[in-house]
Amino acid sequence: MGVNRRALLAATAGAAALARPALAQRGSGEVVVCATGGLMERSLQEHFYRRFEREAGIRVRSIPIELPDQWARARAGQRSGNIPFDVVTATPPDLIQHADILAPVDCTTPAMTQHALPGGCFPTGIIRTAGGMAITWSKKAFPNGGPASWADFFDVAKFPGPRSLPDTGDREWWLPLAALIAEGVPRDKLFPMDLDRAYRKLDAIKPHVAAWWKSGDNSMHILRGGDAVMSVLYSSRAVPLAKSGEFDFTWNGAIRDVGNWAVLKGGPNTANAMRFLDFFVQNPQEHLPFSEKVSFDSNNRETAALVPEAERRYRASWPENWDRLVIADYDWIAANRNAMRERWVSWLTR
């Protein structure tokens, strides 16, 4: 970049400190925050939760949980009147599907207008992290180059060997969408989804799936252990595997994967939750190392200027990578999600 990174970090930190809206007074109590466990939770603890506790005087109670369980408990809490969480993790379809139980977010606060990414705040949430569901493969299995597209991933003759696929998160639309892309459906014709066609394609690959991963860490263990030669992974897991030199991945056709923060309506600590969201989008000097660790971009507009050139290949939001990502029709998914989930479970278990 032609600029000493340490000096740039220091300068940006100073500028951010001047521009950052001060926490007017120390708060009290706690805020209950949900996220997936493993690397994500550890990195959030290190760069945001503990610092929020120090600077705001509000304890963060972290709940590691997968999305289906989180929403099931949130819905049960809504019915019983005992809301279990404050800040929850939400995919774009979640923000639509669960809008009735989410509190409105003020996108006009100084923190949001000065520090959040453009378009990074919504009526019911903010962007937390951005990446993609990317095809990842073993370089040992494919020394001359691995699959470069979803068509390649589904081609077991050209690229032989066991696969691994997700059975968590948004798998009920990720994988049918990938199957349609593999079928050659143009991006502008993917929605409304032809699920019959998608599942015929999934039927063909199912016998070659050696493992269904349940978490990001699990997805890495399967590849490292040699149980599969290729998989579809969160880019947050694909990037460190690629950096190890033993694996590689492609952004081509990767399904854009945006994780959001949202606040449950009627939660135990709503004011503290909103304060946490404002806090989260500040301080690029924390977002840079956080993003490097989780291999996701995060919601701070000053951070992009700090990314070294060698790291740009691994950044989903770098323009040449971002343009290769497939963007879903979240309104259609939200409207059809329950039926899609039922079909997925039926297909997987038969």
TrEMBL record:
Family: Belongs to the bacterial solute-binding protein 1 family.
Species for this entry: Roseomonas populi
Cell compartments where the protein resides: Periplasm
Keyword Transport in record: yes
Signal peptide positions (record): 1-24
SUPFAM superfamilies to which the protein is assigned, alphabetical: Periplasmic binding protein-like II
Lineage summary: Bacteria, Pseudomonadati, Pseudomonadota, Alphaproteobacteria, Acetobacterales
Pfam families: SBP_bac_8
UniProtKB keywords: Periplasm, Signal, Transport
Protein name as it appears in the record: Extracellular solute-binding protein
Keyword Transport included in the entry's annotation: yes
